[in-house]
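One thing: could you explain this record?
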Amino acid sequence: MYQLLRKILFWFDAEEVHYFSMNMLAFFCKFSFLKNILKKQFSPVGQNLSRQIFGLNFSNPVGLAAGFDKNAKYLNELEALGFGFVETGTVTPLAQDGNPKPRLFRLPKDKALINRMGFNNDGVKKVAERIRKFKQLNRHSNLIIGGNIGKNKVTPNENAWKDYEICFNELHDVVDYFVVNVSSPNTPGLRDLQQKDSLQKILTHLQNINKTKNIQRPLLLKISPDLSQLELDDIIDLAMEINLDGLVAANTTISRNHLITPENEINKMGAGGLSGKPLNEKSNEMTHYIHSRTKIPIISSGGIFTASDSNEKFQRGASLVQVWTGFIYEGPGIVKKILAANP
């Protein structure tokens, strides 16, 4: 059924379809009986899939990566679809529009997407308020909510630590864990913050703030699949040195290698981060390598469409997995399908 619907939806602009689909889902979920039907249809049942990772109890190990629900508008609906956790954001201190449209493109032949969204979001205060309201209205919810934080485009890199501090403090009382995003290719200069000295300043500062809080939130770092071996080793060494709680591997790639989509079509789409099936093997390799060097928990993301895809990531050392592009191509039943094999 979804495959037929997907063909129709793919006739229209990708970003407009995203919001249309989620707003329709939100409308249905306003009615409790319809939401319960959705939960029965799409939530995993009959198996114990809970996992205890960085001190948090995840009802199941399949989450939704940052970038899908940037503004925490659809937590109620995503929980109904069976996700064990949802990562909101990337959130910045001030609201920003992101890059000019169109900025989201499909590559159906490759089961991939290219995006250059540019951290479009409503600003950290509004996002924090939405998460707070969700938790107040759903006190018995088991959904784990992550806060993916970044810097505003206009903030120079030397002051980036201040933006991360603002987001960390504003979201601290409402999210369950944090992910520092310095690896998106769609904010000019952001990836330069992956250099060891810059990273150490940001992460150490956030950890020091964390220690002053009554509750300390797990702090993770999302890394790029385009890192050199030396850069990846530096990040792993730093993660162990400062006792980082986890790594997310990986963000989107700027590579366009080995794609089926004709080069002229790709060139028309322009710059942006590539996600989906082409990222699967690179994500697996990074997950395996990080796991071979450290026992820091890994959230593996990139190219997950099936139970086989997710199970391979668990075998490579992932503690949790995240989907995004796979959700677009496989539809609302993706979590149930993945978990049917009970990783």
